[in-house]
Design goal:
5 helices; Pnp Oxidase, Chain A; nine-stranded antiparallel beta sheet; binds flavin mononucleotide; single chain; 22% helix; elongated; alpha+beta
Length: 199
């Protein structure tokens, strides 16, 4: 339990522990964070699934379609922000990251092969996500709707993108009746620089 008596190292461990849980547990609040990028028109935000968090590598992993706006944004500016909030614990984590995109490389292929055909619908739309249409579309091929198979989803690898966010800074806030608690952790070359912040 995080409290003013906790050390900054304990808080950093707690933050990573929660991110790791968020990646692993579909029911955890941190499984569906907000991800913000810089577009040419300003900031764009959207909900994503946090697939995995890796403390040692300082990585947050998610998947997307190569044809989405966010990927276009990241190709121009690899800086992005993640926002996590857990209403149960009243804790917020903000992460400043730099994103590496893996498209049709070894890493993307390895992850793609682990995605079951039934979960590949998000990457096999005939239209690029965000395309304007004159009538309703679920943007799924007919064959996928009938039965997703390895064969009728394999073309999705052409769209699938593995997004690896390398964390540069973490900002942690815990709301407490007795007094809020805020701390910041900044990666500097080979170590975290930790500081308390006024909430
Ligand atoms: C609960 C939830 C989870 C989502 N997960 C993802 C995801 O993991 N990857 C993704 O690309 N889009 C995901 N989306 C859709 C995005 O929020 C967004 O609508 C889509 O990616 C297009 O965003 P863009 O045009 O800003 O790139 C999710 C949406 C919701 C509501």
């Amino acid at each position: 339990m995080i409290s003013p008596e906790s050390t900054l190292t304990e808080i950093l461990d707690h933050v990573w522990g929660m991110l790791i849980r968020g990646g692993a547990d579909k029911k955890h609040a941190y499984h569906f964070p907000v991800f913000a990028t810089y577009s040419s028109l300003g900031i764009e935000q959207r909900t994503l699934v946090l697939r995995r968090a890796d403390k040692a590598a300082r990585q947050l992993i998610c998947y997307s379609d190569q044809r989405t706006q966010k990927v276009d944004d990241l190709q121009r500016n690899s800086s992005a922000h993640w926002l996590f909030y857990d209403h149960g614990s009243k804790e917020q984590i903000r992460a400043k990251v730099s994103v590496q995109l893996h498209h049709q490389d070894k890493q993307a292929l390895k992850v793609w092969q682990e995605i079951p055909p039934s979960a590949r619908g998000d990457y096999i739309g005939p239209l690029p996500p965000g395309s304007q249409t004159t009538q309703y579309t679920d943007n799924l091929p007919e064959s996928f709707r009938e039965e997703p198979t390895e064969e009728n989803t394999e073309q999705g690898i052409g769209n699938f993108v593995l997004m690896v966010s390398e964390v540069q800074q973490l900002d942690f806030l815990k709301l407490r009746r007795e007094g809020h608690l805020r701390a910041q952790f900044t990666w500097s070359h080979d170590h975290w620089e930790n500081t308390w912040l006024a909430p």
